[in-house]
Amino acid sequence: MPVFHTKIIESILEPVAQQVSRLVILHEEAEDGNAMPDLARPVQAVSLAVNNLVKVGHETIESSDDVILRHDMPGALHRVETAATLLQQASDMLRADPYSGPARKKLIEGSRGILQGTSALLLCFDESEVRKIVKECKKVLDYLGVAEVIDTMEDLVQFLRDISPALSRAAREVAARASELTHPPHAEILTQCLESVKQLAPVLICSMKIYIHILTEGGKGMEEAAENRNYLAQRMADEIHEIIRVLQLTSYVEDGGEKDNITVLKALQSQIHTKIGAAHEFLN
């Protein structure tokens, strides 16, 4: 089971985790009453690993128009900066007194804060990137929503001009996201759904042409043509909704299903609603 759900997060957080692990190991080795060694170099290594990340975080806040990111990221940055300060204080205190209990406490608190803060920082940025992709997917859904009211070739041409670039952008970003995921089942779902959308798109356009032709010429089968068009549009919409669902997963359980915490809670809520009537009857 991968620890990090994207390769980017893994590549950034893994070196930080390794540096922090060194500090924790040094602490554990000194727990039997031995003096702590000089932590100046390992603490400096941790600081170097997070300083650039903090700088990029501040730059991201300034340049982003994502309201949620601008609200959440400062807290994660503050946690990382505070933790780095704790580590530096622990290093200075232990240099003066290698047996200092308060210094060791600061060391553990700082190590934990570095990992938690860095993880929160990366997840905040990652969730913002996901929201961008979801936004592109929803644009395609909006266009699919008007497919059933297109009844002239002129409208169909405009529909194609609108949906084609939106679909291309969404497909490109979803494919890139799939290649970044470290959990293969999630990546496979995105890839499969995207492939289905690509296959359905030209078939949908063809069905829309057939409907318009029958409508214009006054031929038979207009109702069937409309049903076929609507069915294909709904198929595409369903695939895109599934893409959006999987994009928003950041954890999973290996029980044959792809369930994050929100999915589990929704399932429990549904079960409660289905049983509440019987419960009321029993109580009455």
UniProtKB/TrEMBL annotation:
<dbReference type="InterPro" id="IPR036723">
    <property type="entry name" value="Alpha-catenin/vinculin-like_sf"/>
</dbReference>
<dbReference type="GO" id="GO:0071944">
    <property type="term" value="C:cell periphery"/>
</dbReference>
<comment type="similarity">
    <text>Belongs to the vinculin/alpha-catenin family.</text>
</comment>
<dbReference type="GO" id="GO:0051015">
    <property type="term" value="F:actin filament binding"/>
</dbReference>
<protein>
    <recommendedName>
        <fullName>Vinculin</fullName>
    </recommendedName>
</protein>
<dbReference type="Pfam" id="PF01044">
    <property type="entry name" value="Vinculin"/>
</dbReference>
<keyword id="KW-0963">Cytoplasm</keyword>
<dbReference type="InterPro" id="IPR017997">
    <property type="entry name" value="Vinculin"/>
</dbReference>
<dbReference type="GO" id="GO:0005737">
    <property type="term" value="C:cytoplasm"/>
</dbReference>
<dbReference type="GO" id="GO:0007155">
    <property type="term" value="P:cell adhesion"/>
</dbReference>
<keyword id="KW-0009">Actin-binding</keyword>
<dbReference type="InterPro" id="IPR006077">
    <property type="entry name" value="Vinculin/catenin"/>
</dbReference>
